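Bug report (template v2)

What were you trying to do?
Predict the complex of my protein with adenosine-5'-diphosphate.

What happened?
Run completed; filing so the output is reviewed.

Input:
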Amino acid sequence: MIKSDTLIESIQRLSTFQKKGLAKMGLVKVIDILRHFPARYGEAGLIKAIEFLNVGEKAIVFGKISHLKTAKTFRSKVPISTAEVEDSTGKIKIIWFSQPYIAKMFFEGNLVRIEGKVAERKKELYFSNPKIEKVSQMPEGVSGSLFSDKENFNLSPIYPESRGISSNWIYHSIQKIMSRGTLDTLEDPIPEKILKKYNLPSLKTALIWIHTPRKKEDAEIARKRFAFEEIFFIQLDRQKEKYIAQKEKSFIIKKKKTEIQDFIKTFPFSLTDAQNKSIKAILNDFKIGRPMSRLLEGDVGSGKTAVAATASFATITTNPPNQDFGNLQVAYMAPTEILAKQHFESFIEYFSKYKIKIGLITGSGAKKFPSKTSQGQTLNCSGPKDSTLAWTKIPKPQLLKWVENGEIPILIGTHSLIQKTVKFKNLAFIIIDEQHRFGVKQRMRLRRKYDIAPHFLSMTATPIPRTLALTIFGDLDLSLLDELPKGRQIPETKIILSHQREEIYEKVRAELKKGRQVFVICVRINDPDPDKENTINAKSVKSEAKRLKEKIFPEFVVGSITGKMKSAEKEKIMKDFKNKEIDILVATSVIEVGINIPNATVIIIENAERFGLAQLHQLRGRVLRSSYKPYCFVFANTKNQKTITRLKSFVNAKNGFELAEADLKQRGAGDLAGAKQWGVSDLAMEALKNIKMVEAARLEAQNLIKEDFELKKYPLLAKHLAEKSLIHME
Ligand code: ADP
Ligand code: MG
């Protein structure tokens, strides 16, 4: 009998190549391979007539091969084989890189089956590095639609593959394992009563149904069970964390309403209702003496910093417990140096009417406000250069000393903020900007570092669907900033096909002449290697900056910035851009998160087809910060109808939340690029389309934790959770 924790290599002879392939997919034990689920069933839907092919899709075509040739690329001497395949509807070119033998394996006129991704170059479709095999006959009735017909649902499972491990290999291994009684040894981690309640199959049944379904519905319900399971486990983990956090002690921060109002009155604007509501929720959490764990989700430009500043004000004007002197402290963490610096400067302004010390600590050094001497550097924003807002560079150890003795109430920084060397006297409140870059486990570990648990405010501008937020942020309470400050204009967004480029550049020129500034976003940093597939059409920061300067906007200053640059260099470029010494900034998506430059009112996004909706939205948010009319021009290099639909929903969506929901709906299983970022599998991502399932999983998790938070009655669940947490820790 084969057991679930038996190593795969002990039941099957493996070549080193196969071992590598398995390792790459994380398949080590028998249970791993049993839980390696089919990506789809049958290949019917993939078979296409050549004339129906679209760019970017995976497809299978059958036809006669001709024009077989092998050559070497001029520059890098990579051998390239080319050929053509023709069926009754059309012809398509095929290119193989570094596989010169292919041309020798086939003869003109051979009937072949080609499987691969359809790419495009110079308006011509081609297959790039596809699989090829000889076949004896054409399948019957190949057309654009016949095989994608649901009636033709073919139940043979197709598994995600890797080099050395084919779908077929996986299929046969699983058959072998299932025939050796392995399934009977498996225990189901989900309590039976929960399965019954939601009509979900047991682990054993679900495994049989997912790998060898007799009918389509079997496969579907099995997938549903595994999706439920994954979401349920995440929920258990988060609910447990929430439960534990609620037992911890925290600083009590109670402020009079009038004091808070006085602080808010110093802002140059009045708060939106959403901002007021969020502040109220935070101040309520502060009073209770248990650590707050709150997520502030607000579209770009919705004013999260003002909320953070107000909560910080309440914190630092509170004395430590049992003391009528001194102050509590705030740590404010940002994902990048540029952002940390920007928050530092924003906070200096928000607290300008108060005599408050603020520190900045990043990988490259430390700064402090106010500067002792009045010759410190002033803010480099375009506003009035007020010397009272000057900060100064100081040695890191000096700053750390002041943080440790409590003299600096607010410390802003990057991840270096939570290193061991940074000690606070009374850290009461931690703000994390752009939550998604900071893992749940990191947050927990951070909290447990302190004797008295600090309050947590996580802020994110990434619009995520409600179901996803409920799942991955299940331990957090949610505040939404769902309205923008008054007077903000939504950018005019346009999808642009290549022939309109000139027209758009003239529009951009008009804005530049009015004194506005422009972002241009490219996918790549350097020019693509012409011999590699996939990179052929994407524009690069380097060559686009050059092209814009030389050919399009010679009368303006063009600068460029990428994530790969040294931080001092980046800082200088951002400063120049802020000071209007650069008119057009060509960048990779490094500028995606939080950069605040109100005079930049135009953003051009090149190769928009390569960005996710959420990312496009973030980018558009860069030009949403002023009272000038903003523009977002989206250049897309695609004919794929799905992509175009996706981009259209970007144009039409009123806000990030709407967009996030649209994104979730439109993504098919298999192309959920964002899933990895959240640590959620494609299967569970599918399930996130279903709010009922997510709510059920959440409810059951809550109930279990309430009943027995250590899961003593559910040892299997407890074990599963412990293993999971370990994985997520790193
Ligand atoms: P985000 O939520 O993207 O972090 P910020 O906090 O950076 O947004 O705020 C964006 C800009 O809007 C800042 O220049 C800020 O001063 C301004 N702002 C914030 N709240 C308001 C408001 N209620 N009315 C007008 N402007 C505001
Ligand atoms: Mg922000």
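What did the reviewer find?
Residues 216-247 form the longest helix (32 residues). Residues 222-247+689-727 form one domain.
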